[in-house]
């Protein structure tokens, strides 16, 4: 049990490496079985980690036994473990779907996917800002290769933009880290939180610059307003399982904002308390507005879904801007819901697109689908969940967010924008549904290629989209969990001091 | 020393940003490379610039900070891999899209047409 918290990083790493070696490397069927087994084990590990943290408390995994703040640590607390479990579950669904046809579109699909999962899990678990950068790069380089996987003009073009943007983002990230290390003398996140309050003089301004540079990077990852332009095109041109796993990548950015700008530059940061808030407020609200406009203007279901990701990123950024316990708890619940539903919707959009012939997933008249009933049921589940109507998880998530807005001025801004964005997505999705399912050409073409849905694809969609009703059903225990995670994050004696067991030496250098 | 160092890092960053904003993939890749060089130097300086300060115990009176060196090493490796990937991707984009513009199409303005003609001459 001692090594449980490093397993979400080690398992995909080892699986990915093994998949490149002889008994598995040439045989797609063996690769499939090995990857699905390993991914299932990872899902189990993810849930085991959540329960482990619930019963035993926060675990800190000290690599190489170099005491913090000097060594590298992994911190498994409620929030990070929940996100790891969600990532693994999403990856499992996406992999099930990939067994349909996408894993044969090019080589090395499964190893790349494993490295992607490893990077995301690592970014959630790490307690060290530089390691956050390293895991970001791991997940990015895997995502570059996965994005272009299968080839095609559109993918190449989207990848060029995505890669260049993220390379520039990595440089900014390193500049920010360099500044923070220069002023704070440490990169351990808990230690940074302690050192920040001791700063004074000109160093404060430098630290502020560093912190805001990090905000730019995390904002880019999470599709914050002026940095979101890459997202719709990238996500809509990726193949379905890849787009599904990408749904959690924007959440990595938001998670980092909650971690760095919520904890390190939170209440206790002295002069630098809440430095990100004044930027996050307008940008988050405008991200919602732009996301809603994007949803309304999108001509195809994949683009609608991609813009819904922007919209949910904006909603989550509002929670980060609120920076209180209830909002963080709401953010975590909404994050789980929106990740799984968005992932499921990407899969569904792809399946719908494949059954409509040349029209694909565009909102035009096309031939009738082969399995309209199954697709329509799951489309309506996804739509209801993502809009935030009862009875599914989106409703509970949005209620929690609206409740966490406390002062009247904040309510005046957040409530209308969040509610109108729900209305916007309601309009867009009902228009999408009517066109996709009810407007088809009646002349029955030869029905020779009417085939049942591939088992893996069926399983992937059912797994991811049934998560929404389940999340709503178990909302009670789940909100207890998210409340606890938020309370932990906002209690510096637990989330900061307890992680630095060794007495602090003076200065970092 | 600090002045010259800062000037060099700044100049390299400026050149990197300028090149990254160009329209063709080659200059963008070169720009990103310059940016990553600037970042590496910058990270190195985050442990303060010192002379005669070894990063090993017992070798000198004053000690240098060993951590930035480890960070720079990591950043160099990652930057190198990313640049290699960007170069290959740029070549793939040239093959797939038929031109080397970042946007995948040649911008249709009079000025760019003239520039293009000038480049071919």
From TrEMBL, chain B:
Q: Where in the cell is it found?
A: Cell membrane
The superkingdom of the source organism is Bacteria
Its GO CC terms are: plasma membrane
Q: What is its main location?
A: membrane
Do the record's keywords include Membrane?
yes
The UniProt annotation puts the region (Disordered) at 99-121
Q: What's the protein's topology in the membrane? A: Multi-pass membrane protein
Concerning InterPro entries, the annotation shows:
CPA3_antiporter_subunitC, NUOK/Mnh_C1-like
Question: Keyword set for this entry?
Answer: Cell membrane, Membrane, Transmembrane, Transmembrane helix
Tell me where the transmembrane regions lie: 26-47, 67-91
The family database entries (Pfam families) matched by this protein are listed as: Oxidored_q2 (PF00420)
Which NCBIfam families does the protein's record reference? PRK09094.1
Record-stated family: Belongs to the CPA3 antiporters (TC 2.A.63) subunit C family.
What protein name applies here? Answer: Na(+)/H(+) antiporter subunit C1
């Amino acid at each position: 049990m001692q090594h449980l918290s490093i397993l979400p990083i080690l398992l995909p790493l080892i699986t990915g490496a093994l998949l490149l070696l002889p008994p598995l490397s040439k045989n797609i069927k063996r690769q499939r079985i090995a990857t699905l087994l390993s991914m299932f084990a990872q899902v189990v590990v993810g849930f085991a980690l959540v329960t482990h943290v619930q019963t035993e408390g926060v675990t800190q995994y000290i690599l190489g036994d170099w005491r913090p703040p000097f060594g590298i640590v992994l911190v498994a607390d409620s929030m990070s473990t929940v996100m790891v479990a969600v990532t693994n579950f999403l990856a499992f669904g996406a992999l099930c779907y990939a067994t349909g046809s996408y894993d044969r579109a090019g080589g090395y699909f499964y190893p790349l996917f494993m490295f992607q999962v490893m990077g995301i899990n690592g970014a959630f678990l790490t307690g060290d800002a530089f390691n956050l950068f390293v895991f970001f790069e791991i997940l990015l380089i895997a995502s570059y290769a996965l994005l272009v996987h299968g080839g095609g003009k559109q993918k190449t073009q989207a990848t060029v933009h995505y890669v260049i943007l993220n390379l520039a983002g990595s440089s900014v990230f390193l500049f920010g880290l360099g500044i923070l290390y220069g002023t704070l003398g440490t990169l351990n996140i808990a230690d940074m939180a302690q050192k920040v309050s001791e700063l004074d003089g000109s160093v404060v301004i430098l630290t502020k610059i560093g912190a805001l540079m990090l905000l730019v990077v995390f904002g880019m990852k999470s599709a914050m307003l002026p940095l979101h332009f890459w997202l719709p095109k990238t996500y809509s041109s990726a193949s379905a399982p890849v787009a599904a796993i990408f749904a959690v990548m924007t959440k990595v950015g938001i998670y980092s904002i909650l971690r760095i700008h919520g904890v390190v530059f939170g209440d206790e940061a002295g002069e630098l308390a809440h430095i990100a808030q004044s930027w996050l407020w307008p940008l988050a609200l405008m991200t919602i507005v732009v996301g809603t406009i994007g949803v309304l203007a999108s001509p195809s279901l994949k683009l609608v879904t991609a813009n819904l990701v922007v919209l949910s990123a904006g909603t989550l950024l509002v929670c980060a801007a609120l920076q209180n316990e209830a909002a963080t708890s709401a953010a975590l619940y909404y994050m789980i819901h929106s990740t799984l539903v968005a992932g499921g919707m990407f899969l569904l959009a792809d399946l719908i697109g494949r059954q409509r012939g040349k029209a694909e997933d565009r909102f035009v008249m096309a031939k009738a689908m082969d399995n309209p009933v199954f697709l329509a049921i799951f489309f309506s589940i996804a739509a209801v969940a993502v809009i935030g109507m009862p009875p599914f998880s989106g409703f509970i998530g949005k209620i929690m967010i609206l409740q966490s807005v406390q002062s009247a001025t904040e309510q005046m801004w957040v409530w209308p924008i969040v509610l109108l964005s729900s209305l916007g997505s309601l309009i867009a999705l009902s228009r999408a549904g009517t066109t996709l399912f009810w407007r088809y050409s009646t002349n029955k073409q030869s029905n020779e290629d009417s085939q049942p849905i591939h088992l893996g694809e069926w399983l992937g969609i059912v797994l991811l989209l049934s998560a929404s009703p389940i999340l709503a059903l178990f909302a009670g225990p789940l909100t207890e969990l998210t409340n606890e995670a938020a309370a932990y994050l906002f209690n510096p004696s637990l989330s900061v001091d307890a992680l630095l067991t060794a007495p602090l030496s003076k200065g970092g250098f | 020393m600090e002045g010259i160092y800062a000037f060099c890092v700044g100049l390299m960053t400026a050149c990197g940003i300028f090149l990254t904003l160009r329209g063709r993939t080659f200059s963008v890749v070169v720009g990103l490379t310059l940016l990553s060089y600037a970042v590496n130097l910058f990270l190195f300086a985050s442990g303060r610039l010192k002379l005669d300060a070894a990063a090993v115990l017992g070798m000198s009176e004053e000690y240098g900070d060993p951590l930035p060196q480890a960070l720079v090493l990591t950043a160099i490796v990652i930057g190198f891999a990313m640049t290699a990937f960007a170069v290959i991707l740029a070549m793939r984009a040239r093959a797939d899209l038929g031109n080397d513009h970042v946007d995948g199409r040649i911008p249709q303005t009079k000025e760019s047409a003239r520039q293009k003609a000038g480049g071919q001459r």
